[in-house]
Each structure stands twice: as C-alpha cells, then as structure tokens.
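User: Can you fold this complex?
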Amino acid sequence: MIRKDLDSLDATCLVCLQTTPRQDLDRLLWCDTCIEAAQARASRRSWYIGLAVAAVLALWIWLYIQPSTLVIGGWIGTVVGAFYVSARVAREVLYTVTRLRSPPSVGAGPPEEGMY
Ligand SMILES: [Zn+2]
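Assistant: Here's the predicted assembly.
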C-alpha cells in the first residue's frame, strides 16, 4: 500500500483522536465534529440551567413581591427574559469550560491503521 507522506499536513483531534487535515482543526486541535458536539451539549444543558434560574426567580417574585394581577404580565416578562438570558450565558460558560478542560479522550480509540 502506498501511503502519501503528508504527516506534516495532518493532525490528531485531541478529543476523538481521529487524524484529519490540519486545516480542519481549530487552534485547540479540535475537529469540526467534536466542536459541534460540544456546542450541542452545552446548548442542551443551558436550557435546564435557564429553567432553574427562571423557576427560582418566579418563586422569589411570587413569595416576596407578591405582584398584583395588574402587573403580572411584566413579571412574567421578567421571568421569561431571565430564562433566556441565563440560558444564553450558561451556554457560553459551559462551552468555554468544556474547551478549556481538554478532555483526555475517554472512550476514544487510536485511529485505525490501514484507513488510507
Ligand atoms: Zn474530534
């Protein structure tokens, strides 16, 4: 089997350990698939965090502010806004933490030989 000597142009993704062209990896050596997976995971978790923040805020408003029915719409808007903003912030934080932690490729195997 003839294998092209392109090692200098290839690099290994730090997450899934797949060897891909260097141009397909970002500066932390993550491939597109792993970046998308990390973003999707962060996005999914962030909605739960947003929901938790909104629930606590709604409970606090309900128990301590006890809004009258006249202004309840404004408070609902506040809770919805808090839900959205905290979910967005949580998504960025979760994604950044995932990137900085650089997982030790748990469950990933070495690239299979003979793929070329
Ligand atoms: Zn990868």
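Strands lie at 10-12, 19-21. The chain has one domain: 7-101.
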